Q: What sequence folds into this?
């Protein structure tokens, strides 16, 4: 189990980027961006994991039980919520692009021809 | 460049990216062998220093509170951005929210969906409120609780119509709630400066029992304000998108 | 130690936790591939919702219950709702 989670993270990143690069629809591209971002949560939590460690909440377990790293969990937690708001902003750009150019195909948007 | 060429160029570049990525990741100490000094140091002293048994929330709102202010303002600005980008453009008319499907034979919302959504609204609000106010004891916190509260408004839309949703969350109220949440967080930090302490220091009484609701000083208070802000931001975003879909026309 | 709580023992065989994590990682990789390869928008949104739930269970197996709560609500409810509302807007014939 030494490096397997990190292999999965690399696979998810490349798969998501493949989706972004070969997409014909802005909404499909945005969902693939969500997939790329989710790989970073897995990476963060994978880095902080301690074998045999418990969740870092000492409400019902004794105070010095071996626990996983809480700092990366704090980072991943705020990341997840903020990602949703940024995705909503990207989707509102897609709506305005549809209104302005009449198409959602990224290869046909006017400034990006070629 | 044809799509085939683009695909092949990406596959070559993606293989190179994956190779470099894995080369970098193989320098890590392996899954499960986290060596770093920061995590165990915080685990050793967090409960004693802040009287909060939820160490992750203590990190979010006390030890790394400054980072959380930044993240919350990303959320705030994103919600504001959605409202700005989807503003009424020149040449767009706003029409009243009439029944859109009057000339189509789309099936109405099934009664099962409406009843279940209505039944779940109350418990979801309760659960969200509980999560937002218990940051210091369990795996709860302002962010999770705020999102659940926003989900309650989505359930109101599902169980009724757009007009009901509008009445429950008018745009002015959500804007004010968002501002109160974000401003409250910053104000708590500034109050620490007014007392000659560093910004976002934990200055309220810490309570006696670790993990009680009234313990851990500013952590509980900040988490509550964050919950209000996140709920208002997501309700505003969903309201804006509903506005666009149902009200505006070119 | 808190005097307010019921004390629960924490004993899970380490091998079992490893097997669970490996299974969930494989499922997450498969789910991500599926989300990317589906081109039809509404079907992709449903697959995204399933992927969000899979990720949430993976985070639970990584001993991170608060990230699980966030990811569950965001990935399974809020993101699909926002994307579906956008799809309803851009696919409507403008009058």
A:
């Amino acid at each position: 189990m030494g490096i397997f989670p990190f292999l999965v993270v690399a696979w998810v990143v490349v798969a998501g980027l493949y989706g972004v690069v070969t997409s014909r629809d802005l909404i499909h591209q945005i969902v693939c961006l969500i997939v790329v971002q989710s790989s970073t949560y897995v990476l963060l939590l994978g880095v902080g994991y301690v074998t045999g460690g418990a969740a870092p909440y000492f409400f019902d377990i004794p105070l010095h039980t071996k626990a996983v790293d809480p700092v990366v969990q704090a980072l991943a937690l705020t990341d997840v919520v903020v990602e949703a708001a940024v995705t909503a902003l990207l989707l509102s750009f897609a709506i305005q692009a549809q209104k302005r150019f009449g198409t959602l195909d990224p290869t046909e948007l006017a400034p990006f021809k070629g | 460049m044809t799509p085939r060429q683009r695909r092949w160029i990406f596959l070559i570049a993606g293989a190179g990216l994956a190779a470099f990525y894995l080369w970098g990741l193989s320098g890590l100490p392996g899954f499960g062998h986290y060596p770093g000094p920061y995590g165990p140091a915080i685990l050793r002293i967090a409960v004693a220093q802040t009287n909060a048994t939820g160490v992750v929330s203590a990190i979010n709102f006390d030890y790394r509170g400054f980072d959380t202010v930044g993240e919350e303002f990303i959320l705030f600005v994103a919600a504001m951005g959605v409202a700005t980008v989807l503003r009424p453009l020149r040449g767009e008319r706003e029409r009243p929210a009439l029944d859109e499907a009057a000339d189509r034979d789309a099936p109405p919302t099934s009664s099962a969906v409406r009843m279940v959504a209505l039944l779940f609204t109350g418990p979801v609000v309760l659960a969200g409120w509980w999560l937002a106010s218990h940051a210091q004891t369990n795996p709860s916190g302002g962010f999770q609780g705020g999102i659940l509260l926003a989900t309650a408004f989505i359930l109101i839309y599902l169980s009724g119509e757009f007009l009901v949703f509008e009445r429950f969350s008018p745009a002015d109220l959500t804007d004010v709630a968002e501002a109160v949440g974000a401003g409250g967080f910053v104000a708590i930090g500034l109050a620490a400066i007014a007392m000659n302490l560093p910004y976002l220091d934990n200055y309220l009484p810490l309570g006696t029992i670790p993990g009680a609701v009234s313990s851990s000083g500013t952590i509980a208070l900040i988490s509550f304000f964050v919950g209000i802000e996140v709920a208002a931001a997501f309700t505003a975003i969903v309201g804006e998108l509903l506005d666009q879909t149902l009200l505006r026309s070119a | 130690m808190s005097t307010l709580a019921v004390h629960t023992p924490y004993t899970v065989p380490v091998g079992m936790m490893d097997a669970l994590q490996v299974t969930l990682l494989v499922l997450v990789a498969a789910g991500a591939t599926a989300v990317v390869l589906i081109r039809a928008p509404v079907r992709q949104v449903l697959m995204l919702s399933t992927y969000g739930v899979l990720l949430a269970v993976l985070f639970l197996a990584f001993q991170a219950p608060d990230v699980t709560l966030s990811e569950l609500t965001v990935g399974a409810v809020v993101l699909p709702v926002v994307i579906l509302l956008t799809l309803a807007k851009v696919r409507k014939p403008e009058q």
